[in-house]
Amino acid sequence: MFKLPAKTVGEIGQACATTGHTIVRFSTDAEGMAATAMPPHCRHLEKEAAFICKKCQLAFPTEAAVNGHQRAVCFAGLAFEQRGHVRLVQLGFECRACHERVATAAQLVQHCASQQHEANTAQPELTHEMEDVVNQITALAAQASSAASPKPAPAPMEAGPVSG
């Protein structure tokens, strides 16, 4: 069970007053998420947290469960279009290098400082052999470029007065 921010509880109440299906996104760390500079190897993540029946406001773990509940209890006999639920989505982060998922900006910062993360994102140093290969490829590319460039056309000869 997770604790929802008061703002999210209010948004759910407003969403339940409307018809149809609604999405409410929330974060357990709204201020931290906005203030955190996203490292290039990380991304924002959305995770379905629950599905809430708009009539009785009970939460279910899956959309199928809330639909079954509504068919049998709250909206028995009504068409799907006449029912509605709130899809509750929790915002978080994912580190693409480590495939680690976290809920808060503080957890992301902590993960990025971990040894596991540093090992996954460290760039290997070039060995002398690798450096030689890179230099050889660069030299070959330069040769190919100069050989492929067209040679300038000879300048046209100017015709002068013909003496006879």
Name the descriptors.
single chain, 164 residues, alpha+beta, 5-stranded mixed sheet, 5 strands, elongated, repeat, RNA polymerase II cis-regulatory region sequence-specific DNA binding, DNA-binding transcription factor activity, RNA polymerase II-specific, metal ion binding, metal-binding
Provide a descriptive summary of the structure in words.
This protein has about 160 residues and is of the alpha+beta class. The protein has one domain. The protein has six helices and five strands; from the N terminus they run αβαββαββααα. Strands 1, 2, 3, 4 and 5 form a five-stranded mixed sheet that branches. Strand 2 (about 40-55) and strand 3 form a beta hairpin. The longest helix has 21 residues, at about 130-150. The model has no long low-confidence stretch (mean pLDDT about 85). This is C2H2-type domain-containing protein. InterPro entries: Znf_C2H2_type, ZnFinger_Homeobox_TR. GO terms for molecular function: DNA-binding transcription factor activity, RNA polymerase II-specific; metal ion binding; RNA polymerase II cis-regulatory region sequence-specific DNA binding. Keywords: Metal-binding, Repeat, Zinc.
- How can the largest sheet be summarized? 5 strands, mixed
Mean pLDDT: 83
Overall number of structural domains: 1
CA(first)-CA(last) distance: 109 Å
Q: What sort of overall outline do the alpha carbons produce when their principal axes are compared? A: elongated
Which strand-content bin applies to the residues?
Answer: 15-25%
**Structural class by secondary-structure content:** alpha+beta
* Quaternary assembly: single chain
Tell me the helix content. Answer: 25-40%
Radius of gyration: 32 Å
Work out the number of β strands.
5
Tally of contiguous helical segments: 6
